[in-house]
Amino acid sequence: MVDRLAAQIIKFRWLIIIASLAIVFFIASGASNIGFSSNYRVFFSEDNEQLVAFETLQNTYSKSDNIFVVLAPKDGEVFTVPTLNAVKDLTDRAWQLPYSTRVDSITNFQYTKAEEDDLLVNDLVEFPDEADLDEIKRIALSEPLLESRLISKQAHVTAVNTTVQLPQLTEQEIPELVAQARVMIAQFEEDYPHLDVYITGSVMLGNAFSESAQDDLANLFPVMFVIIIFTLLLLLRSFTGTAVTLVVIIMSIVSAMGMFGWLGWTLTGPSTSAPTVIMTMAVADCVHILVTFLFNMRHGMLKAEAMQEAIRINFQPVFITSITTVVGFMTLNFSEVPPFRDLGNTVAMGVVAAFFLSVFLLPALVMVLPVKEKKQADKAHKGLDAIANFVINKRRQILIGTGLVTIAIFSAIPLNMINDDFVGYFKQSVEFRKDTDFTAENLSGIYTIEYSLVAGESGEISNPKFLQQVEAFSQWLEAREEVVHVDTITEIFKRLNKNMHADDESYFRLPESQDLAAQYLLLYEMSLPYGLDLNNQLNVDKSSIKLTVVLNNIPSYKTLALEKDIAEWLETNTDITEFYAASPNIMFSHIGERNVMSMVSGVSYALILICIIMVIVLRSVKLGLVSLIPNLIPIGAAFGLWGIFNGNVGISVGTATGMVLGIVVDDTVHFLSKYRRARREKGYTSEQAVQYAFATVGTALWVTTFVLVAGFMVLALSNFNMNAHMGIFTATTITLALIFDFIALPAILLKLEEKTAGKQGTENILTSTPN
Questions:
Q1: What does 716-761 look like in DSSP terms, one character per residue?
Q2: Same domain, yes or no, for 492 and 555?
Q3: I need a surface site. Which of 74, 254, 387, 498 has the fewest CB within 10 A?
Q4: Do 531 and 670 belong to one domain?
Q5: DSSP result, 613-674
Q6: Cβ distance 433 to 196 under 8 Å?
Q7: Are residues 608 and 544 in the same domain?
Q8: pLDDT (tens digit, 9 = 90+) per residue, 416-436?
Q9: Residue 474 is assigned to a structural domain of this protein
Q10: Last-in-domain residue among 543, 562, 582
Q11: Residue 468 and residue 493: Cα distance in Å, rounded?
Q12: Do residue 86 and residue 119 come from a single domain?
């Protein structure tokens, strides 16, 4: 059947070329619908528990999406007239940004004081004057709502926080807002050269995802393209072979991205790596067919005969490897992170396209293009022959050595821990990362947990018992080493109580009467200017409050542990029964852990399916099970090495496991198919079959491995660490898989042959078929 198919491909080559171009052109037209997402919420499903809680929090209180601008005077002192004037000016400018609903700074902080029987509420800094600087500094540094939030303890940096309410109608809202913010900051820096300016916040986080994605497409794809061209020219030694491979690569990519567009998906950080991954996967199919074709021509076959034989020999293994690769990438649908599902589905579509184009279009193109290959002795296999002979002669030592090394590396797997850091998703060269790191080191933690605490019925937040419990909760939090700052409404109640008692410091405590507390709060709210109300801390009917916990830069597993401790403390020490936690930090911490658990299920299903496929293809249950050894050990070894050199298993590494499983199976399939062909069709001994497998598929395996490793290592150059870590982990696993397939797999096969021969005589597991 395959012989007939190969003959038809060669016969109708022009029809295949025209039809392929037409179909791919139509599919590729969908790419015009592709856009970029700048919203970090795309990393979560709509029904994600933490996202739902976060959206509920945002709808209950004011939105917390923000642009956080940090100002660092070059003289190291915030409380000078020029710097305070600059802060005041930036505060005014920030109000002009699109979607801004609130701007907070030390200059417009609503400072309260008593004047006879009146409560005065004014900006802390109205008109900076040298005579007032010491008093302003004293107030700011003693105010819990400012210190370590908008002003550093050393008074060497300060910040202006702009809260925005995005309509979330188009994907362009964040890029346009960031563009205007950068224009504003550029002009501000010109006007105030004595200040260093750093910009961070959740809006900048979302924009960093989008910019990193676009940078990867613009920078990494061309690098990989050049690497592939030089690699193919060097290793295939054929201009025609290189040219047709590039055609297949490009058409596979545009087909997949066209379908991406037709399906209405948007590009995110992880999914932008799809073209680079598809490029490497498409090369593998092409190389296997071309290496066999060129091998045949160099050994005297005519062009048509050589291509027909190449299709016959490679159709089944290429088909099987395409299936296993698709299965591997489809496991990404088990991921808790939608962008990784998009990546898996997109690459799977690209792999399917690459299979059809490799089997149909590539041979057709080769047949119409000139191929000049002279009959010659094959010098390229000397090194592979040496490896084959080494394995044959040292099989026992290899098995013992491989076992010992495997045990040693596997022992490092427990060094890994689940940890996701959404700021750490970006390399330190990224502007957002640099500015955010500066903020964390000099002003305040960038990780928060926001709690909604329900007091009861309307107006119950003024209940002294509730306020006392919130105060105790705040004090317990501030004593934790993970906590930098706690922002709570109780500080305002204490300050108002002091103000209403003639600013007597002894009254800096919570009001003892609910009615009195409610009156203080009402009086205070009526005095607040537009945009600086308490809706960011209180709900509309004053039945619940929002308490914000600012954290140090701690691993995600510590964040989850803290969340658990907080829940237990509230249940044990308060009457507050209704509460929930929400924040981007909580969302990313939970999804990292849940993603690993989901991928374990996905990989398990993929493993079972791949095992069944291998059993069917190899026609042996025993050999099908044995074939999983060279596929699982490299993955385990990669985790061991990851534990030694990194140790943080985030979303990307956890997700890559299923993807890698589908890739590393490919080498095993090709090697075993050639080995089995030598035993069944040619009647070779097991030693001769090993040599035959190395001779026929060895070159293709190390060429495709080189290209795959190069492709995924190009991802390591990404400024987006999700892609970089996925690339490094995958490249490491593929390298280990080739080493295992070249060294350990033949030794295992030879050892199995020895045992089988001893039990069954001349019959062996490779030539026998199940009844």
A1: TT-SBHHHHHHHHHHHHHHHHHHHHHHHHHHHHHHHHHHHHHHHHT
A2: yes
A3: 74
A4: no
A5: HHHHHHT-HHHHHHTTHHHHHHHHHHHHHHHHHT-EE-HHHHHHHHHHHHHHHHHHHHHHHH
A6: no
A7: no
A8: 998 888 888 899 999 999 999
A9: yes
A10: 582
A11: 11
A12: yes
User: Is there a single domain that holds both residue 156 and residue 95?
Assistant: yes
CB atoms within 10 A of CB 186: 11
Distance of alpha carbon 635 from alpha carbon 625, whole angstroms: 16
Q: What angle do CA 674, 13, 4 make, to 5 degrees?
A: 50
Give residue 375's pLDDT band: very low, low, confident or very high (50, 70, 90). low
Helices 721-760 and 395-410 pack at an angle, to 10 degrees, of 140
The tally of domains found in the chain comes to 3
- Would you say the C-alpha torsion 46, 51, 55, 56 has a positive or negative sign? positive
pLDDT in tens, 473-493: 999 999 999 999 999 999 999
Beta-bridged to residue 111, according to DSSP, are 122
Q: Look at residues 548, 582, 616 and tell me which one is the last residue of a structural domain.
A: 582
For tokens 């600087």, name the residue. Answer: 133
Is the Cβ–Cβ distance between 524 and 112 less than 8 Å? Answer: yes
Quick one: tokens of 202? 């959740």
Residues 740 and 669 sit within 8 Å (Cβ to Cβ): no
Take residue 429 and report the two structure tokens written for it.
Answer: 């060269």
Half-sphere exposure of 13 (CA within 13 A, CB side): 16
Encoded tokens for 565: 């401790």
CA distances from 372 to 4, 241, 274 (A): 26, 11, 34
Amino acid type, 55: E
Structural domain boundaries enclosing 162: 49-203+429-582
Q: How far apart are CA 531 and CA 92, in angstroms?
A: 12
Helix (H, G, I), strand (E, B) or coil at 79: coil
Token pair recorded at residue 672 = 């075993």
- 714 with 614, same domain: the answer is yes
- Evaluate whether 709 touches 735 at the Cβ level (below 8 Å): yes
230 lies in some domain = no
CB within 8 A of 142, min separation 6: which ones?
none
